[in-house]
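Limitations
The structure tokens in this dataset are predictions for the assembled complex, not deposited experimental models. Users should treat interface geometry with appropriate caution, especially where small molecules or nucleic acid strands are included. An illustrative entry is reproduced here so readers can see what is and is not provided.
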Amino acid sequence: MHTKRDISLPKGREVKDSKIKYIKKLLGKLPIKRDMLIEALHLIQDQEGYLSKDNIVVLAEIFNISRVEVYEVASFYHHFVILNEGEKPPNKIKIRICSGLSCEIRQSSILKNLINEKFKDNFHIQSVPCIGNCDKAPAVQIGKRSIENADFNKIKNYTTGPFTPQIPKYETMDKYLKSGGYKILKKILNRKVTSEEVIRVLSESKLSGLGGAGFSSGKKWEIVRSFDKPRLMTVNGDEGEPGTFKDRFWIENKPHRLFEGALIAANVVGCEKIYFYIRDEYPACIEILKRELDKLKKLNLVTVPIEIRRGAGAYICGEESAMIESIEGKRGIPRHRPPYIAEKGLFDKPTLNHNIETLIWIPEILEKGSEWFSSQGWTKLNHGLRSFSVSGRVKCPGVKIAPAGIPLEDLINLHCGGMQDGHKLMAFFPGGASGGIFPAKMAKKPMDFGVWEKDGGFIGSHAVVILSDKDNVLNAVKNTIDFFEHESCGQCTPCRVGLNKISHLLKQNSFDKKLYEDLNYVMRDSSICGLGQSAGNCINHFFKFFNKN
Amino acid sequence: MSNQLKTKEKKVTFYIDDIEVTSNSNETLWKIAKKNNKNIPHLCLKDSNNYRPDGNCRACMVEIEGEKNLSASCIRYPSEGMKVKTFGTRVQKNRKLIFELLASDMPLKENCPDPNSHFWKQYESIGLDKNYRLPAGRPGAQSEIPIKSILNDISHPSIAVNLDACISCGLCERACREVQVNDVIGMEGRSHNSLPVFDVKDELGNSTCVGCGECVQACPTGALIEKSFMDSYGVKREKYPDEVKKSLCPFCGVGCQTEVQLLNNDILSVNGRNGPANKGKLCVKGRFGMDYVMSEERLTKPLIRKKESIKNPEIKINFHNYHAHFEEVSWEQALDFAANGLMKTKNIFSGKAIAGFGSAKCTNEEAFLFQKLMRQVFNTNNVDHCTRLCHASSVAALMEGIGSGAVTIPFTAAEDSECIILIGANPEKNHPVASTFLKNAAKKGTKLIVLDVVKQNLMRHASHGLVFHPGTDVSLLNAMIFTIIEEELYDKEYIKTFTEGFEDLKSSIKLYSPEKMEKICKVSSKHIREIARVYSKSSKSIIFWGMGISQHTHGTDNARCLITLSLITGNIGKPGAGIHPLRGQNNVQGASDAGLIPMVYPDYKSVTDDEIRLKYEKEWDCSLDNNPGLTVVEIINQILKSNIKAMYILGENPAMSDPDQTKTRLALSQLEHLIVQDIFFTETASFADVIFPATAQPEKSGTYTNSNRQIQIAKQIRTPPGNARQDWELITEIAKRCGHNWKYKEVKDVFNEMSIFMNSLNNISWERLEKEDAVCYPSQNINQPGDEVIFSEGFPTKSGLAKIVPVSLSEPNELPDSKYPLILTTGRLLEHWHTGAMTRRSYDLNIQEPEATVSMNPEDIKKLSLIRGEMVRVETRRGSISLILREDRNISMGILFIPFCYLEAPANFLTDSSLDPFGKIPEFKFSAAKVVSLKEAV
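Predicted assembly:
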């Protein structure tokens, strides 16, 4: 038994010339290069609301690559909807309702059901992982328009549009220049200060990588510089860690500080191009960056070309090597190490990768000196300022610039106006979904790198989610595991299958501690990247701190 | 990810399970462990140098002292002093959990598509049993494959897909994308939904899959498996082999080594062996096309034509009705009858009234015996074979230019080359495994220049894919030569040391500037100059060509240009540089080497050379004809003139393969005595007076020489059906009955006799071949591999120099006009071999291309108001055939393409039998034609 193929055509799905013309027109001036594939998919998805298989085949033809290469990329990213034959095309405008923990505890799933009931005929309604608006939970996006503290009526009001991003007020280039912006960059460009000097200041400032790994920035610059040119730079704006929204905060407030930081880094390290990778959940950020980059180009300060790339809905692309794969237009699958990206990164070139916030601090550090920054810690053991993304049961959630090492209690009381009325601190995630969940009694410990590790957690991106006695820790754990299960890239067995098993077991309300421990064991020890290695932290903590019965 | 940096090779000393080991630093821990007798379990790793380890399954994790996490040994390299543990509590706990995780999502072992798979063997080897602790992750897991499972796909004729058993290890993806570069399989989605897909998640049978089956050979679970093993639902394995034997693929000139699984003498499945030419790979024909051997249409009894049966040029006899025309007889009767007929002809007319067609499908030994029979027994050089129809012109040019008809470098050298020109060849269809080396080279950055008269899929991998106008090869190539000379990109030193004739070239080439030639060949002068520069500036360049070059009345000129390109740039005789006409048949090189050519003895020694002839006369104790014999088309012409009366045709099918079939078939019907020796009742057999049922390739032993000059041995692995006999025995029987008492006891004796005459076999003995399976000739030493790259120090010509032969433009014999406005070109399909005698009798192959089609550009179809899929009539000055219209965007406007394998619509009724003056090859690639809808025609 087999299918009889249509012998009036060559093997495989037909390519229609008319479709080629249509897609070519749609792509417009987009450069047809392999690494632009995701951008091309976005253009079709934005226009049609989905990707038909025929159009995927056409895109493969235009890009001169195989069909499956396009299909596998399209199917990897959540923001692309592939339409099967016979399926009804989805509505063009999506309503995305965040299912992240901070939104979940504010009943986003109930909201989703309500919205789905009322608007499913006119909109494509999706429950999506954290969209980085945790301080304004529940967060919703309709088209590219963000709805903060959403409720049914608010959403209803937005159903008539506009669906374009709302651009917040930010520090414009003029304003930034007036306040002394780009001064440091100009000094470097005019060789008023040597690269070695810049690196020394940076190292002494003890600025660590604030994407979550905490690696010394000065040291990173030295390492990347030690490899042969050409070198490249990537800017990781894919903050997908649930509870994290500080990078969005910075782009939406100080885009030029970011550009200056990036250009300083690229000039000092000797990178010949900078790629900004911004998550697609942040359309306003992408718009701001594009707009301001155009202005900046006129000042002749963009001495290193900058390209801005759109993510497509994949948490794993926050992992630097997965992000690099994505910039190359591929599935966002983490690479094996060694080699490290510093040696062989984007397009196999030595690559300097930085988180947004890390770059934000650089101009100020170079202006005010290393001592200014390094002495900012809560105690002498902590160094610098940090942007904490605080969400959950506090009075004033939001991005809080606070000294590194500040204990959670103080962060809540001094920066967040205390707990929400009627709520008592019960548990918290110090570093987003992957950093583990800890009980209130540990709220006196310093919030810094190297503290939480001995208890099987970490501070990571400083995404602090506060749970109270009104919340259910087990539900929070389930939410977290489901997130990771959904976001696992699927490459390695322990993460791909292990998370699926844990998710199943939790749904079955299993409390077989040994089984969870075994699954955690293999995930931690044998997964390729940090996602699988740390995804089980919350389960471990659940048994360790919360499941005394 | 292919990002594991390979450190430069150096020796390191480290520890595996506390044992000190010294090893190369660029070898993986897994391989080093294996060498030290530690077999670390593996799933996503295929134990072969041809597959990149991917490190995703995490079955091979080892503990490295001082590291936080375990490490995948398949992608990890040792460093000095490293302490590695391949077992221990931690390692084993992880390992068991990995297998437990995977098994918990698969059907129970006994319900898996292949309970015997690598996965289950490994699962049991680490001491796991059926004790499931984990919840099932998909329907049917830990039980059986659900009925109508969405993960089951049996749409492909040869491959069953049951992703219920898939462990997402990606080996199929690497097989398809990295090993074969067919680019059909990818991994869909992410998380636990990450599973293999074909194209855009199409059914495998409706995808662009070319059926190479590399995925099947790679799959560790049986999720992708040969249907030949399976029940009718393609879900459960039913068949297991009772024998596994080494063999060779019988199809094209690539010469893939195979491993054949047999059950009750039937071929059940075929895998690729790690041969020098295929490195474990196969294509659809070699893997899934071997069922022709078991066809019920095999000839099993000798046949003699009934007296009342009249030979009719319109073939009316076939497998189903031949008993009305032929009588089954004993071997004695058949052989006597055959021999008597030949002797009668010889006695009445002379040996020159006899001709023989040997076969490029048969062994070297059979080719040698066949030409010996014609020369020694019948005193004629009228012996030829189908090389005349494929590369005769290339060989003519090569002999003239460099004194040798063979390739100077193997196709596997593509990977050492910086620039490859492929012209007039479509190896993805006709030499699929050879094309994988080209594609892999291109992926690694080798500049690949593909020149053809139609688009082809290989152009997707090319740095330069250019379509030129049919029949204008010389203008394009001369313009390239012009550029190289004008821009002084030639290799002065090489030209001075190794060639003659450059000055003539330099003056004659002046007429052919790219700016003038672009109007003829329809490739812009900018592009011509660019490819000429790329080719000449790279330090190592290879040229590959095929029938698109040779099958023209100016075929020899085409090949001369290519030889000139390589000579003036010094791109010959060094690693990564050379010329390689891709040989078509599995043994066309060997059959030519063995003297199945009318003007030469074995090793291309001229029949007019007295010294040579005397040696043969002495050894064979006879007198030999010193006149060159007739070539294929000449023989057909001489039959019509009644100068040839009798023929012995062994394994060839001129009633399909030769041009202008109206003429060819008329000629065959006029023969007074025709012996056909074949495994099937071919179209040619319908003209026979006597038919010998012969053996198929797996049923006999002998040697074959592939396109790379690699001589390979294949032993009999299967008993022939009925009374079918060994071909070499039959030739010997005829010789005996014609008064020459040949005394060969076995095939080896023939090989040994060949060694007496053929210097090319120096240091290559039968025993050596038995031991090594393949040896490249020439071989300088019995202990060393043969020379893959030849002519590094001059050429086997009289002067020792290569001769540069300038050529001028000539047009095809017949140009399109108002009556026949289109250009017809013929060729092959991936699934069908040559005249289809074998492949159309293979179920798996024929079902993929079951009907004759003519391919046309969609714009042309629209212009002529035709509809794809309808029956059309294609007509030339020589005849017409009716077939189905196929729409193909690869075909250029104004061109028709017809494969010549369909008996129902033989393309060679249309082709032109005009010959190239040097190679005597017909112009298969160019005829003026027209096409009309059959609806209109009625």
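Some entries come with short summary sentences. For this one: The mean pLDDT of chain A is 96.
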